Amino acid sequence: MLPSAFKDAVTICKSVMRNGFDAHIVNTPLQHELIERLGENAVDIATDAPVDELKKIFPSFSRGSESPSAALLGLLEENGCLYRFYLMNIAEATRPESSLTRMTPTMILGMQRLGNIPRSLVSGMSTLSSTDNSDSSFEDFACGRIRFKGLPDKTLDTDYLLGIRAFRFAANLDLPIDPNTWMSIVRSTQRILNYVPARSIMEEWRKVEAPNMWKFLRMLFDSQLMSGFLPEIAALSRVRQTRNDSGAEESVLDHSIDCVRRYPEGDFYDDWDGTFAMLFHDVGKLYTAEFYSGRWTFYEHHRIGAEVTRKLLRRLSMLPEDIDLICHLVRNHMRFKFMMTDKGIRRFKAQGESRRLIEMSRADIKARDDNYTAFNHNNKYLERAEQPEQMLEPLLNGNEIMEYTGLKPGPEVGQIRNALLTAQIAGEVTCHADALDFVRRMTH
């Protein structure tokens, strides 16, 4: 029969839960054994309630003088029993079965004092520890590697989000991942996919700096995590395309990651959204790939890709406005690739996000080691697009001037045309009727 201390502990846990928090007695069988053999009337409780709330619920609650662990929240003495409150591991990416049974530091000390506890009571248990510091599960980065503390597999079991976080640290700090830490992540790929919510993955991903994102993506792919939550992107590793006029082939995934690398090299070095969009810009090629007459084609891949991207980003729990932006960039990333007319350039600028789309085109060319002919042509037309249309072309062309005036082809027609354009820029001519009147005055 359990001591009365446990009955009181149940009442204490219920009081915490009635106030909107969680609480439970830590490993009742083991604690019962320790109380009987050590003769100490003390019970350890795990809770997610913060200290200030525990003080409100239990007026006699105090931080106490015991400090076996940073996870110890405080103490409560009632009816001759000491109740220790420990911070519950509330990381939602923790393996559920490993969080069912815990040992607190004081329980470990008690076991050390006894020297022998039945294996049936401790098998499969892990130590309760603080989870409020994202770096607390990693060795000091000064060691030159990203390395989990303790046994890598056990550390990762406490919070599978640590696997994604390790990639983020490695990418941003440009450090290698310790081989044993890497293998623990690879072994736990399926558990990471099972237990880490998409929004948590994106929270870590958002902290990866744009110039380092390509390294983060390489680790996601090499660890097989990308195949789990973005299989459409991972599948691009099996889609081939011609790199440039040399005829060399590459995988679409390699090209996409190289584009992610190239995009932040210019003026957009801190543009996370534009860099992120480069990963998805060719995802439509998975659905439009067709091998015909000795070459691969991907007609309409930008349009199909935008629709596929919308589905993928919803899966990643991204905000609607972010999804709209990325899909817009994917759908229109081809527009700057071909030589455009003056009107085409004006339409391009009017659709929005033109600077990002230009940078996407530049990154694509760099990644392919391709030529800049169309890119340079369009850039020249961009300068013209900064001016109002009436400043670029006269309201009457040369043929119309000759038809109206009866002049023959020659320098005079060109002079009249240039004078008409000058009058338009000055605001003296604003419509077709004004242009006819202007020409009439010049020839009479």
Main traits of this protein?
single chain, 444 residues, alpha/beta, Beta Polymerase, domain 2, Hydrophobic Seed Protein, Hypothetical protein af1432, 4 domains, 4-stranded mixed β-sheet, two-stranded parallel ribbon, elongated
In short:
By secondary structure, this protein is of the alpha/beta class. The chain contains 24 helices and ten strands.
Q: Could you explain the architecture of this structure?
A:
By secondary structure, the chain is of the alpha/beta class. It folds into four domains: 124 residues, Beta Polymerase, domain 2; 97 residues, Hydrophobic Seed Protein (Orthogonal Bundle), CATH 1.10.110.30; 156 residues, Hypothetical protein af1432 (Orthogonal Bundle); 52 residues. It is built from 24 helices and ten strands. It has a four-stranded mixed β-sheet. A hairpin with a 2-residue loop joins strand 3 and strand 4. Helix 14 runs antiparallel to helix 15 and helix 19 crosses helix 21. The longest helix is centred in the last third of the chain and has 16 residues. About 3% of the residues have low confidence.
